[in-house]
């Protein structure tokens, strides 16, 4: 398999856990666990919490009123507690206390260079994926996200070492290969997935745009690509002095 095709396959495999999202104006519900449907529900929610952060189940503030007004009945609570091997949680008071003191799994909020990386990536994605709302459209979007970013980001004073951007390869696949050279497949995929799940909302929309292809009118103006996204992330991570 040619190297670029192999890289695209790696990126697609790493992104599979993120369900494609349509724009909000379409009003079409999407199962956020769509990319994890091969797992049992409880395992899928736990994996989603680990990857994306957030609470995959109701907290004490939601459960307490539901118990009080009978939306969660005592028999249902007992069955659930026994099924999970926690018979003590059939007692509503003990359940609420347990929920109040639970440690919710999930990744921590980004800080330092990682937070800067997320902020800058989101800033440039917003400009690239604009659909006519901006008064001044981002130039060169027809070149793709990476190449358009490479042409313009040298003027972004929020990027340290921005003068080095001129030295970056023109081809996003070449940049990704350079950054991940010498790593085994599992490590490469782990790094790629970490960059994808860092901004799951943006990536979900990119996945939808990629799937739409030529059917989406804005893809002619700003062609979506997960490869471009990963290339920009890896380039910015290096310019910000962070890790891969």
Automatic annotation (TrEMBL):
Record-linked InterPro entries: DabA
Keyword terms of this UniProt record: Cell membrane, Membrane, Metal-binding, Transport, Zinc
Transmembrane segments: none
Name of this protein: DUF2309 domain-containing protein
Pfam families assigned to the protein according to its UniProt record, in alphabetical order: DabA
GO molecular function: metal ion binding
Source species, domain of life: Bacteria
């Amino acid at each position: 398999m040619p190297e670029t095709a192999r890289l695209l396959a790696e990126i697609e495999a790493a992104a599979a856990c993120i369900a494609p999202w349509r724009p909000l104006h379409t009003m079409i519900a999407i199962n956020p666990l769509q990319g994890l449907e091969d797992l049992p529900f409880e395992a899928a929610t736990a994996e989603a919490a680990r990857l994306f952060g957030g609470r995959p189940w109701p907290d004490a503030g939601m459960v307490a009123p539901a118990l009080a007004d009978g939306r969660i009945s005592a028999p249902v609570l007992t069955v659930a507690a026994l099924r999970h091997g926690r018979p003590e949680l059939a007692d509503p008071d003990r359940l609420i206390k347990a929920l109040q003191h639970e440690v919710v799994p999930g990744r921590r909020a980004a800080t330092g260079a990682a937070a800067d990386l997320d902020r800058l990536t989101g800033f440039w994605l917003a400009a690239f994926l604009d659909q006519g709302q901006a008064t001044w459209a981002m130039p060169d979007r027809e070149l793709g996200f990476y190449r358009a970013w490479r042409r313009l980001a040298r003027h972004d004073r929020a990027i340290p070492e921005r003068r080095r951007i001129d030295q970056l390869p023109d081809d996003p696949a070449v940049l990704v290969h350079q950054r991940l050279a010498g790593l085994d497949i599992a490590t490469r995929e782990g790094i790629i997935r970490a960059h994808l799940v860092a901004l799951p909302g943006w990536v979900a929309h990119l996945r939808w745009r990629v799937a739409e292809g030529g059917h989406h009118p804005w893809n002619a103006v700003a062609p979506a690509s997960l490869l471009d996204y990963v290339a920009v992330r890896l380039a910015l991570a290096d310019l910000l002095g962070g890790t891969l």
